[in-house]
Design goal:
Layout (H helix, E strand, L loop, with lengths): L1 E9 L5 H14 L4 E9 L5 E4 L7 E7 L7 H12 L5 E5 L2 H13 L3 E6 L1 E5 L2 E8 L4 E6 L5 E5 L12 E8 L27 E5 L10 H9 L3 E4 L1 H5 L20 E5 L5 H4 L7 E6 L12 E4 L2 H11 L1
Parallel strand pairs: 1-2, 1-5, 2-4, 4-11, 5-10, 6-10, 12-13, 12-14, 14-15, 15-16
Antiparallel strand pairs: 3-11, 7-8, 8-9
Helix pairs in contact: 2-3
Length: about 325
Amino acid sequence: MKNALFVLHNSADTRSSEFATLAAIATSIGNAGYSSDLLILDTTGSSSVNVKHGSAFRNVTAVAPDKAVGDGADYLVHIVGKAASAAVSLVVGFGTISNRNWAPQVAASFSAEFVTACELIEVADNALRVTGPVMGAMVQKTLSLGDRNAVVLYSGENLAAPEGTDIVVEVSREPAEQGAVRFVASEALPDSGGIPLRGASKVISGGLGIGSGEKWRLIEEFAAKVNAAVGASRAAVEMGWVPSSRQVGFSGQKVSPDVYVAVGISGAVHHLAGIGGAKKIVAINKDPEASIFKIADVGIVGDYEQIVAAAMRKL
């Protein structure tokens, strides 16, 4: 029997679909001889966590740091490393930016394969097989793990929950190790809230073409008007207009909404890698040669401020 450790950040924005997806993967890999435990990093401040479909896991543990630890990367390297030790051969988490800060270090600590932006975890011939994009998402790579250790970040579709019951787990306080990242307001933009990207049915994303941080409010107003999640290109994040938790793309989050609206986004391959699952893509850009128009279902060439303002007047 092999042991797998699933890792989940639990916050006020965590959805039941995230618990369901991890439970579905845990159930599936049982066919390859894995038993699965769930480790929850809780940031809600509650004394307990209601774990949806928790009976899919052999053990469930919820921990919280005794002091603020920034994005939790260093803290999780310590906690996950301690939980994994030599007994765990597979670590699974979601492909979020915060997880990408700690997962490579954990993989290196026990000489494991590191698979980021994994879109499929399946069992074939009684062995575990993972599939994800490589070479800037130009091709897909499938890897059969065999007996190799691995750290896998899942960015695929939400999965249906297996049959199982919810459980309540008490949160234990774990000390933040000396040297862990402490939260400093200037380190990163805090997420202003709103609808989380993962699982959102509508996403309004902005890019470098927005022009400035002052103008970014138009994206947020537009998203609020249509009850959509706010997304961003890597360039907009690097400009400091929006927190990294809102980044969409190969180095951010993968989304698969019913409607994805790209405003002022040129369409670099790294961004397109994150929106391939969108059912409809609407692109607004002043450059008629922008690459985003090659994959858009609806393309609008013009000044985004005028177009978005007109759209909001009609809604």
